[in-house]
Design brief:
- With 245 residues, the protein is mainly alpha-helical.
- It contains eight helices and no strands.
- 80% of the residues lie in helices and 0% in strands.
- Helix 1 packs across helix 4.
- The radius of gyration is 69 Å and the shape is elongated.
């Protein structure tokens, strides 16, 4: 029983379920199971396997595909002896009732409505040519945009003219200030030149005065000497006259 239980657990493993039946049987026989135990393990694994769902219709109706019959171990042994394989029977087709058809109709209607709504909202405006009213609206919109652009250009031109006028006025003021500065610099330069000329003339006059002072002193000294000599002579003459009397 332990070997059979272990074999059932082995056969229920999802990784082992995809392996060929011959390999699974050979593996179980290599573990010491008899043909009867292998057949019993296969039967238990098949009985314990959960039925697989086949879709929304099978879940709603409760129908499931017929379970394929398990290949009996005896038939497998006979097939191995005769070098022939017994193919498994295909699963039976699920039966459908009015609920399945109702679900299919609802799903089909929903898909059709979604396709129609999508085509009407996104595809039809792209392929449908515009009518006269739309063309007029587009024309009016373009005209409004053109007028707006024209107004903006006019405003830009006006601003540019005002800026140019302001720059011209400012340039004139700057030129006037520069002329005044140049005039002031010229006046200062002329005054400086006149001051230098006056200083040079004063220097020459001082030099002349410096040269004339010794001469004047010499002349005054000579004149004083002559005056003193004349006075002495007169005094002598007067003294002589007085003595003669």
């Amino acid at each position: 029983d332990d070997l059979v239980s272990s074999a059932v657990t082995f056969l229920q493993d999802p990784k082992v379920a995809d392996a060929p039946l011959a390999k699974r049987i050979a593996f179980l026989e290599s573990k010491g199971l008899s043909p009867q135990q292998v057949q019993q393990a296969l039967q238990r694994a098949q009985d314990a396997a959960p039925p697989a769902a086949t879709g929304a219709s099978q879940e709603s109706t409760g129908y499931a595909p017929a379970r394929p019959p398990t290949l009996p171990y005896a038939s497998y042994a006979q097939g191995q002896a005769g070098n022939s394989l017994i193919a498994a029977q295909p699963p039976a087709l699920p039966q459908r009732d009015w609920r399945d058809w109702f679900i299919m109709a609802v799903v089909s209607g929903g898909l059709s409505w979604a396709v129609y709504h999508t085509a009407k909202r996104y595809i039809l405006p792209l392929v449908q040519p515009p009518n006269i009213s739309q063309l007029e609206e587009d024309k009016n919109a373009l005209a409004a945009q053109f007028d707006q652009v024209q107004e903006m250009l006019s405003m830009l031109q006006t601003d540019a003219a005002e800026q140019k006028q302001a720059m011209t006025t400012q340039q004139e003021k700057v030129d006037k200030c520069l002329k005044e500065v140049e005039t002031t610099v010229e006046d200062v330069r002329d005054k400086a030149d006149r001051r230098e000329t006056d200083i040079r003339r004063l220097g020459l006059e001082l030099d002349q005065i410096r040269e004339l002072i010794p001469k004047a002193l010499e002349s005054v000294k000579h004149a004083q000497t002559e005056s003193l000599n004349e006075l002495n002579n007169e005094l002598r003459s007067l003294k002589t006259l007085l003595q003669n009397r």
